[in-house]
Every structure is written in C-alpha cells, then in structure tokens.
Amino acid sequence: MFNDIGPLELVTIIVLAVLVFGPDKLPKVIQDVMRTVRKIREFSESAKQDIRNELGPEFKDFEFEDLNPKTFIRKQLDNDELGLKEIRNGFDLKKEMAEVTDAVHSRDTEASSSSSPSSSSSGGRIDMTKKPEDTGKDDRPPFDADAT
C-alpha cells in the first residue's frame, strides 16, 4: 500500500502528525485509523466472497483484478489459447509500410516516365498535369445568380 513512500516522507508524516494531533492524542488517532482500515478490508473481503458465492462454482477462481483491462489483456496474451502470438509475430508493420511505400514510388516513377514529351502514347491514362489546349471558348459553366 505504501511502497512508494521513502524514509524522508515517512519522517515528515510522523512530524506533521505529532504537530497536528499532539503527542498525547496521537496513539488514539493511530488506533482509530487502524481500526477503520481493518473494517474497510473486512467489508471488502466480505463483498468479494458474496459476489463469488452468487456467481456460482464455475467462477470460483475469478479474480477481481482481472476486471482491469490491462490485466485481462496481459493474461490473455500469456495464455495464448487464441494463437495471438502467431498473429502478432506474423504481422510486421515496418515491412508492410515499406512495401506500400515502394509501390507508391514505383507508380510515381511510371507516371513521370509515361508523361515525358518524347512518348506519343499515354497508354490510356489522362495526364492531369498538362493544361488543356486553349480552343478559344470558355469551358466554365454559366453563372446563375439565383442559385447562389
């Protein structure tokens, strides 16, 4: 419960408790706090036992810590009944991203080589980088003042 309290913090808490409650009332305060902590633990254990009894014998090894999503996932990954390790090891995100990047770069180089001015055939592709030839007529749609 108090695993992260160092010796300096403990001494500081004791000094503050002596200053706040006084040396004559401090033992009674400590007893009251310990009694309250014991009652809370007993109540908690009683509630856990009641829930286990209500769930039935198939949940006799049920642990309430498993309700924490991180604990549940860690347990399932360690259990490996679902074959998650094979799935996780079989999927290499860096390799997949490299393949996609290579595919995109190869398309870019193919598009730039096919749009060179020396090639007369576009291979069925439309080059969107070229400007259409100016035929002299306006290709814009007519302006409708009522529509706007």
UniProtKB/TrEMBL annotation:
<dbReference type="GO" id="GO:0033281">
    <property type="term" value="C:TAT protein transport complex"/>
</dbReference>
<dbReference type="GO" id="GO:0043953">
    <property type="term" value="P:protein transport by the Tat complex"/>
</dbReference>
<keyword id="KW-0812">Transmembrane</keyword>
<feature type="compositionally biased region" description="Basic and acidic residues">
    <location>
        <begin position="127"/>
        <end position="148"/>
    </location>
</feature>
<comment type="subunit">
    <text>The Tat system comprises two distinct complexes: a TatABC complex, containing multiple copies of TatA, TatB and TatC subunits, and a separate TatA complex, containing only TatA subunits. Substrates initially bind to the TatABC complex, which probably triggers association of the separate TatA complex to form the active translocon.</text>
</comment>
<keyword id="KW-1133">Transmembrane helix</keyword>
<dbReference type="GO" id="GO:0008320">
    <property type="term" value="F:protein transmembrane transporter activity"/>
</dbReference>
<keyword id="KW-0813">Transport</keyword>
<keyword id="KW-0811">Translocation</keyword>
<feature type="region of interest" description="Disordered">
    <location>
        <begin position="99"/>
        <end position="148"/>
    </location>
</feature>
<comment type="similarity">
    <text>Belongs to the TatB family.</text>
</comment>
<dbReference type="Pfam" id="PF02416">
    <property type="entry name" value="TatA_B_E"/>
</dbReference>
<dbReference type="InterPro" id="IPR018448">
    <property type="entry name" value="TatB"/>
</dbReference>
<feature type="compositionally biased region" description="Low complexity">
    <location>
        <begin position="112"/>
        <end position="122"/>
    </location>
</feature>
<comment type="function">
    <text>Part of the twin-arginine translocation (Tat) system that transports large folded proteins containing a characteristic twin-arginine motif in their signal peptide across membranes. Together with TatC, TatB is part of a receptor directly interacting with Tat signal peptides. TatB may form an oligomeric binding site that transiently accommodates folded Tat precursor proteins before their translocation.</text>
</comment>
<dbReference type="InterPro" id="IPR003369">
    <property type="entry name" value="TatA/B/E"/>
</dbReference>
<keyword id="KW-1003">Cell membrane</keyword>
<protein>
    <recommendedName>
        <fullName>Sec-independent protein translocase protein TatB</fullName>
    </recommendedName>
</protein>
<keyword id="KW-0472">Membrane</keyword>
<feature type="compositionally biased region" description="Basic and acidic residues">
    <location>
        <begin position="99"/>
        <end position="110"/>
    </location>
</feature>
<keyword id="KW-0653">Protein transport</keyword>
